[in-house]
Structures are given as C-alpha cells and as structure tokens.
Amino acid sequence: MWLGRVKEVFDAPILRLGPSQITLWTIISFVLMLCALFFIAGKLRKVLVGRVLVRSKLDVGARQAVGAITRYVILFVGLLIIIQTVGINLTTLNVIAGAVSIGVGFGLQNVAGNFISGLIILFERPIKIGDRIEVGNIEGDVIAIGARSTTVVTNDNIAIIVPNSRFITESVVNWKYTDPTVRFRVPVGVAYGTDVRLVEKLLLEVANENPDVLDDPPPGVRFLSFGDSALKFELQAWSTSLVNNKWRLISALNFAIYDKFNEHGIEIPFPQRVLYIRSAAFESKHAVRDE
Q1: Model pLDDT for residues 98-147, shown as the tens digit of each residue
Q2: What is the pLDDT of residue 70?
Q3: pTM of the model
Q4: Tell me, which fold does domain 2-107 have in CATH?
Q5: Does domain 182-263 have CATH number 3.90.870.40?
Q6: Cα dihedral angle (120, 126, 131, 137), rounded to 10 degrees?
Q7: CA–CA distance, 243 with 76 (Å, rounded to integer)
Q8: How far apart are the first and last CA of the chain?
Q9: Percent residues over pLDDT 70 in the chain
Q10: pLDDT attached to residue 228
Q11: How far is Cα 262 from Cα 280, in angstroms, rounded to an integer?
Q12: Any idea of the CA torsion for 75, 79, 85, 87, to the nearest 10 degrees?
C-alpha cells in the first residue's frame, strides 16, 4: 500500500513542458545522472592527461588543454543524452533557451565572455600551464586554466584568479612562450675617470661566476651613455633557471657587482649638483660701496 503511495508521489507531475511532464522522479534521476556525468568526465580527463597523453610528445600545457576540451565535449554530449533519457523533449526547451539567451545578453555577458575566452586560450594556447606571465600588475606562474578563469601563483605563493577575458583583451607578457631562455639586463653606473675596459672585464667576471647565468648565449656588457653623474653600463646575462624569479638573479648580480667594484676601488657615484645662489640685494649693496 505504502509503495503505491510513494510511487504516486514520485510520478505526480510538477511541471509541464509541452507534451513532457516533469515529475519528482524526473528531477531526482536528472540530478543523479548529472552528478554521475561530472564524475565520469572528470575521471576520463585525469586518465587521458595522466596516463594516455603522457606517453605522447605533447608538453604539460598541451595535455591539459586536450583534457579540458575533451571534458567539455563529454559534458555537452552527456547532458543532451540525459535530457532525452529522463523524457524531456528538447524541442520544448526553446522557450527556456530563449530566456537563457536574454539572461546571457544582459546579466551573464561577462560569464559568457570569460567562457569563450577560455576556449580561445585552450585552442590557440597564448598561455599554458607552467608559463611565466605578466598581465597588468599581476606576475606569476600559470597553474590552472579553467572555463571561466585562470589561476596564477605569484612568488609570494599567493594564488590570483584572473578572468580569462583579460588574456584576450589585454597585452600579456609570456616569458616562456617560444623559448625559456631569457636575457636579463642589469644597469650600473661608475664614476668619470674609471677605466672602462676594467669595468667591462669585471662585469663579465660577475656574470661568468654566477651559476644561473648561461655560457651560451654568452653574457655581454654595453657602454650605454655618458650620464650627468656617471658612465652608464649595462650587464646582459641569459638564464633559464631563474625565469620564474628574475629579481633573485638581478639581486645576486647586483651584490656581486658591488663587491667586485669595492675590491678594485671602482666608485659607484651618486647624483651631485652644484648650486650657485645669487642675491640681487647683495649685488646692489656691493655696487654702491664700489662707487
């Protein structure tokens, strides 16, 4: 008796969409199958990225992109199958689709824009997982690219969630886009009268003694200009190991340059100005005395 009443409760229509009736059992089965779909799609993505594609020649970013796109396709196709399975006719969803499109046009345009930008990022791959990027005032390593946003971790180990649309509409600096080898520039000034060839020799020694500076391409020194208070040089050094922490390498080179210059008595000048103060009253007083 009670089983029949329970069945009546589950089969009682709650909502009607054209010829389709939405019952409590329809909603429960839809939710259960939807949860199973997300679980299966996530597992297949992990297997594809972690076991299948790892045997290919694709890098980590490409594997993650393929895995994400595959997950989206499985979710889309699976959702269509689930809707048909629970007995909802897709043709009856035209009105709902129209309402959703209006909502996207007004209230969800940023969400839709970020989702489309995420798909563009996954297909075109201007950035990928593991890249060192700069967008606006944000600098860090890309650790995840999602449907709506990308996660960037800074050197302070702070995760910043960046909307995907920023990577499409703004200028992005990607330190590892084509080649992880990056040239670092360290400006330095010395006092006038310093042996410039000695400065060049010492700067090259500093670069060659640093284990994070590459021998090929070799470091170089440029004599930039004759400044107001100093002769301006620039040490150019290539590195791959500290691309994700460029200030660490620049700081190490600056410390070494300072010690090397002190060792050889080379002065690093500071800006100096000579002021001449002239008083009109003082000059007129002396002129009267002279008369």
Answers
A1: 656 665 555 567 777 888 888 888 777 888 888 899 998 899 999 888 87
A2: 86
A3: 0.62
A4: Helix Hairpins (1.10.287)
A5: no
A6: -90
A7: 39
A8: 132
A9: 78
A10: 84
A11: 46
A12: 170
What CA–CA distance (Å, rounded) separates 163 from 146? 9
Closest of 63, 39, 38, 41 to residue 50, by C-alpha: 63
For the chain, the C-alpha Rg in angstroms (whole number) is: 33
The residue to which tokens 């886009």 are assigned: 177
Q: How does DSSP assign 41-88, residue by residue?
A: HHHHHHHIIIIIGGGSS--HHHHHHHHHHHHHHHHHHHHHHHHHHTT-
Contact at 8 Å (CB) between 89 and 19? yes
Task: Just give the CATH number of 126-174.
Answer: 2.30.30.60
Burial 139-163 (b: 16+ CB within 10 A, else e): bbbbeebebbbbbbeeeeeeeeebb
Residue whose C-alpha is closest to residue 79's, from 119, 37, 47 = 37
Task: Supply 17's token pair.
Answer: 């969409």
Domain ranges of the chain: 2-107, 126-174, 182-263
- Choose between 93 and 129: higher pLDDT: 129
pLDDT digits (tens, 9 = 90+) for 53-90: 777 777 676 777 788 888 888 888 888 888 778 776 66
Q: Is 218 helix (H, G, I), strand (E, B) or coil?
A: coil
